[in-house]
Amino acid sequence: MAINAARLQSVLGIHFDSILNELSLPAGIYEKILKISIRTTEESFPQFSLALMNQNRDAIAEIVHDYKGVFANLRITPLSLIGGQMMRLVSSGAPLSELSDLLDTFKEKFAALKTAIE
Questions:
Q1: Spatial CA neighbour of 18 closest among 102, 103, 97, 75
Q2: Any bridge partners for residue 3, and if so which?
Q3: Which residues partner with 77 through β-bridges?
Q4: How far, in Å, CA of 36 to CA of 42, rounded?
């Protein structure tokens, strides 16, 4: 796996070199962490859907907390911000059905991230 820095910048507005400098990580280490994060995020989508179907606010809160934290740590701000929006919606007591649009947006941005990985 290699990160296409130009693609990452064009699809998400993220500067790969800036991330590496800020985190003081070699590209290879960052890529390994990102690969694991992508896999675990993909694996969480069925769990998220099931929790949403069952109206399990606690399970959803745990999943979206992970989205916010993981992608904030990786400096993938667009995904972290959406994770934060979902966290606020869940904790506000709003109907969980309102998460659908945010989840769709998250998945679109997540798919865009994956296009920057070769």
A1: 75
A2: 117
A3: none
A4: 10
